């Protein structure tokens, strides 16, 4: 078993953002070179530190429960226990104290995306997304946000509203978005809808801020308000709501 780095004073998830301590990360991947590459890049970030590594899913779950990192980076195809099951055990709906999990994989398959998000993951990245997006995903997860590879996001969410006749191939059930039976008691403002539309197209908070000529903190404020109004757990559910209700179109 890989020996973890001793935890710092901010041991519980989310403590990094509140106390200014580095974001504590666990990396789980069965390939030594991948773990080494991720560790090398993330440890070079001033606000991130890798506290543990695991070679398989069982080891990842055990280390995560013991070390309580702020963010867990999990591969999908691992021995003993795959990343989807590990995600469910660490962040699933039945977990009393869920952790922040970002799934990082080589395989751009819809069933993996759906499985990861339904299992509680707050992010989904392809390994070829690049180191900058990896660090962004870690920071987003630690802040209670979500990040899905832009190449995956629009395709994933378009499936929510795709006409049944357009493609009759069976697909896994997408992550369940918030779908209130009655109209929203407090409607979204026009500016909140602007933010929602960009979230639905896979834009990051920084890209939304630039597109709308507002500050990053303003975007975060709007997103917090939107989450409350939609009863959405994360930006993935916000985006799904936008696609279901006709507030987003690719290329818009």
Chain-wise SSE layout:
Layout: H1 15-19, E1 23-28, H2 32-43, E2 48-54, H3 57-67, E3 71-74, H4 83-91, E4 101-105, H5 110-118, E5 123-126, H6 131-142, E6 147-148, H7 150-161, H8 190-200, H9 205-212, H10 216-230, H11 235-244
Parallel strand pairs: 1-2, 1-3, 3-4, 4-5, 5-6
Helix pairs in contact: 3-4, 4-5, 7-11, 8-10, 8-11, 9-10
Structural description of this entry:
- With 252 residues, the chain is of the alpha/beta class.
- The protein is 45% helix and 11% strand.
- The protein is built from 11 helices and 6 strands.
- The protein has helices spanning 15-19, 32-43, 57-67, 83-91, 110-118, 131-142, 150-161, 190-200, 205-212, 216-230, 235-244, and strands at 23-28, 48-54, 71-74, 101-105, 123-126, 147-148.
- A 6-stranded parallel sheet has the order 2-1-3-4-5-6, sandwiched between helices.
- Strand 1 (23-28), helix 2 (32-43) and strand 2 (48-54) form a beta-alpha-beta unit.
- Helix 4 packs parallel to helix 5, helix 7 (150-161) packs across helix 11 (235-244) and helix 8 packs across helix 10.
- The relative contact order is 0.10.
């Amino acid at each position: 078993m890989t020996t973890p780095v001793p935890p710092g004073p901010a041991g519980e998830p989310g403590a990094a953002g509140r106390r200014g301590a580095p974001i504590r990360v666990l990396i789980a991947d069965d390939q030594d070179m991948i773990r080494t590459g991720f560790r090398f890049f993330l440890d070079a970030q001033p606000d991130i530190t890798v506290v543990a590594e695991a070679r398989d899913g069982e080891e990842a779950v055990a280390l995560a429960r013991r070390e309580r990192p702020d963010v867990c980076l999990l591969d999908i195809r691992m021995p003993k226990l795959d990343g989807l099951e590990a995600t469910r055990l660490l962040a699933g709906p039945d977990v009393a104290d869920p952790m922040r999990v970002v799934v990082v994989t080589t395989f751009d398959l819809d069933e993996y995306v759906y499985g990861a998000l339904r299992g509680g993951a707050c992010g989904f990245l392809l390994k070829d997304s690049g180191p900058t997006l990896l660090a962004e995903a870690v920071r987003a997860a630690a802040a209670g946000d979500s990040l899905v590879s832009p190449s995956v996001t629009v395709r994933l969410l378009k499936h929510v509203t795709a006409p049944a006749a357009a493609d009759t191939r069976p697909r896994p059930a997408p992550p369940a978005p918030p779908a209130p039976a009655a109209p929203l008691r407090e409607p979204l403002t026009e500016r909140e809808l602007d933010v929602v539309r960009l979230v639905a197209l896979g834009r990051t908070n920084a890209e939304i801020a630039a597109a709308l000529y507002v500050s990053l903190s303003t975007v975060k404020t709007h997103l917090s308000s939107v989450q409350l109004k939609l009863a959405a757990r994360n930006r993935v559910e916000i985006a799904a709501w936008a696609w279901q209700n006709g507030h987003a179109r690719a290329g818009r």
